[in-house]
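Hi support team,

I'm opening this ticket because the web form for multi-chain structure prediction keeps timing out on my end. I have pasted the exact lines I submitted so you can reproduce it. The total is 609 residues across two entries, so I didn't expect it to be a heavy job. Is there a limit I'm missing, or should I split the entries? Thanks in advance, R.K.
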Amino acid sequence: MLLDATVARSIAVLGWAAELAKTVGGSLYIAPGVLSTDPDERSELRGIRDALQREAQHAQPGSGRQSKAVSAVDRLDMFFALGPPTVTVLMPDPEELAMAIRLSSRDAEQRNWRAQLGLTARRLDAGEAVSIAIAAARNFDFASDDQQALIAYTALGHRAGVRTRDAIKLVVARGLVEEATARNGYRFLQDDDLHLLGGPDW
Amino acid sequence: MDLSEALRMGRERAGLSQDAAAAAAGINRVLLSYYETGRRPVPLPTATTLARLYGTDLEHILVGDDAEAAAVGAGVDVSGILYRASPPALDDYARGGLTIFERYLREYVELAEELGRPLPGKGQSPFPAVTGSAARDAADAARQLRRYLNLGGGPLGDPFRVADDHVLIWRLPLGEDLQGAPSGFFYNHPQVGFSIVINSDMTLGRQAFTVGHEMAHAFFHSRTLDVIVSMPGAEVGRERFADAFAGELLVPGDELRRMVTEHAPWNGVTNPTTVVHLQRHFGVSYATLRVRLLQEKLIDRATFDELAQVSPSRLAQGLGYPVHPADMGDFAMHPLGRFPSRMLVLVRDALERGAITPGDAAETLGTSSEEIRQLLARPPIERDEQRVQEDLEAAAFAHKASPGAAS
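Hello R.K., no limit was hit. The queue was backed up. Here is the completed structure from your submission:
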């Protein structure tokens, strides 16, 4: 399964990356730029981690918000430390790269093509685009909480993508996390004013 | 064309050194060199950031197509215009900052067009152009602008917000070394009008002063010039005018004299403690306040020099005032604090209408999706905060309902 930044963040914050990897055959795949192996390199997940760190620094000391932010930063650091095979960064090949560029292009012709796929937003961001291009080309499941990304994946990969909720349900089905714990964790991500996941109910 | 090679050529066409491009893209210069030489594959999001910084897009950069690139977004070579207006001393880091500004302007125009929002076009000042540098004319101009904007005669409160109501104001890192970096610049963009950029790598007081300075350019020099890059200490008449204007705009002479008269019986104006109180009252730097006291002849030169021997930040802390991190050399700021409020409104509207995705919004603002989540959030009020709000509401209603207020 290939995760985009939104689902990777959710699974990392809940601390269930190893469980999800076991559930889907041993590896969670992520596109470069969404996660980087080198801490000097920019990536969406490191950007999210830095924003949460800033939140931890600026929240009222001892508040629930600060504690949640600190915990999220710790969990993301643990996620970054997992490495392959549990978390593997996949490089796109030239065809996948070309597809990713089409998905994120400003060009009017490419936008028309994306509209034919069913997208209503003007374009996808580069991280989402390269994730979809790799997942669709290699027949991987794709996990995202971005509706437009899921539409694009379905059109190109000819199957539905999964959301955070569905990924957690897979872990529960495999018996690696109790259902009540999983439901609480998901609801926490959905409703909490730091995590603000929203999305469909369980 | 190979992506590595394309990025190198794109950077060179944009006239940026590796140092400038790396600083503007927020990556390490060595890493950029690795990307350009193919020693390391460049992740697509980073390649996209770099391409946009170079004023183009990935598909265009890959075919070396500059003509197409010019059609992307605003279609105005903003950084080229700014380079040409800049002194040769402008350093690489500052050049990178100009390029970031160009990129954000392009994003602003594109978003406004996407949402069908009309763009105002080139800004028109209601005031005649000023060509001289006389301090008295500058003070008159500042008073005119205050009247025009209904700002009254007291402190401005937050000069960034005041300016934000009338111009597009951006706070971008242009460099700490003001020998080679501008304190700010003004640009009258053909589609979005008055835009000013404040160098965020300066103390907060200096940033506030620069807001006033750039407002002078916008309202009193824009009839003759579309772009003005402000280098500290530049011996140019309009720069001296803008400095004097900023002093009067932020610290009006009448209000300063009134405050000094009020304070004098308690604590003489030669006392640095008084200067700190006055500085906080006006929301300016200690240095600006000292200069204004001297200009208004409320202190003599010897006192002016003597007041300079005190650490204003430590004195302020001792008096219980908070000291802004920027005044202690920490110039980091919240990523969304860099943008004009109108840009954030556009992004938010576009997200709510589904015209852009959260990832696209993050890419547009050069931030992470975490900030975008918070931009869209309607956080529920917590119990303690709610109690405070209820107390304040009750006090406000009681005041309105009181017989004195009713009469």
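A quick check on our side: Confidence is low (pLDDT under 50) at residues 67-74 of chain B. Let us know if the file doesn't open in your viewer.
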